[in-house]
Amino acid sequence: MYAISDQEFAHFQRFIFEAAGIALSPAKKALVSGRLSKRLQARRLTSYGDYFALLESGREAQEVQTAIDLLTTNETYFFREPRHFDLLRRLAAEPPRDGRRAGQPYRAWSAASSTGEEAYSIAMVLKDCLQGRPFEVVGTDISMRVLQRARTGHYPEQRSHHIPQDYLKRYCLKGRGEQAGTLLVDRSIRRHVSFAHANLNAPLPGLGTFDAVFLRNVMIYFSGVTKQEVLSRVVALLRPGGYLFVGHSESLHGMAVPVQAVAPSVYRRP
Questions:
Q1: Is 89 part of the annotated catalytic residue set?
Q2: pTM value > 0.85
Q3: Are 142 and 32 part of one and the same domain?
């Protein structure tokens, strides 16, 4: 294991803050060291300082993306915080109003989608409750690595524990033979879901506007100023009458954003 000095760790704290708005506490020093050590070995470097210099050189865009992928946390699973999905089921089934005209697809955004479980969970709920009406789900993440996995819709079977049994039967295929022990999200769900690269700490790509935005368990990694900037970007894409879902441990208290609380960790844009 390569040793990382306090000064080198400070360089990577600045790097990931500037790249993604993520504030790494001193307690993350071992995490940074562990996740980046293989890159030092792969690039035949002898110190974290040399690796940081490589990233800063401006000649290694792919290596910069690799470092970002390694330093961002991607923890997720199907139907995480299930009360949000119960509420989404009720809200999406309501007649169109405010910013969504009848006949337009219901659009939902998983803003930190990681390997895609949240986006596919949203799509299963919408497929069930909209009863043939059009819908779209967009998943975005800063990590290209997890987006590649998300697009496959292919997961270890043990990841299915939180999927409702009815949805598991209707919307997932159980692997057999060489694929035993895995599940594939059915095409009837996957065709409604797309994934794109987006950095919430930078101007967003052209994603359109949404009836529901899931921005869950990501703001805890941002400083106060960055949190405000991210929320402003995200809420700007929320249609009037649309809903913003944040993590149960998160709050918009003190944030200047045009939404109103309607339930714990759920907000509505007037």
A1: no
A2: yes
A3: no
Domain membership flag for residue 91: yes
Question: Does 190 lie in the same domain as 228?
Answer: yes
For the chain, the three-class secondary structure string (H helix, E strand, C coil) is: CCCCCHHHHHHHHHHHHHHHCECCCHHHHHHHHHHHHHHHHHCCCCCHHHHHHHHHCCCCHHHHHHHHHHHCCCCCCCCCCHHHHHHHHHHHCCCCCCCCCCCCCEEEEECCCCCCHHHHHHHHHHHHHCCCCCEEEEEEECCHHHHHHHHHCEEEHHHHCCCCHHHHHHHEEECCHHHCCEEEECHHHHCCEEEEECCCCCCCCCCCCEEEEEECCCHHHECHHHHHHHHHHHHCCEEEEEEEEECCCCCCCCCCCCCEEEECCEEECC
pLDDT, tens digit, for every residue of 256-267? 899 999 998 999
Catalytic residue from among 35, 39, 133, 268: 35
pLDDT level of residue 112 (50, 70, 90 thresholds): very high
Q: Is 35 a catalytic residue?
A: yes
Structural domain contains residue 77: no
Residues 139, 189 within the same domain:
yes
CATH of the domain at 234: 3.40.50.150
From 80, 141, 190, 269, active-site residue? 141
Domain that holds residue 37: 6-71
Shared domain for 42 and 126, answered yes or no, is no
Give the tens place of pLDDT for each residue, 195-211: 999 999 899 999 999 99
pLDDT grade for 83, boundaries at 50, 70 and 90: very high
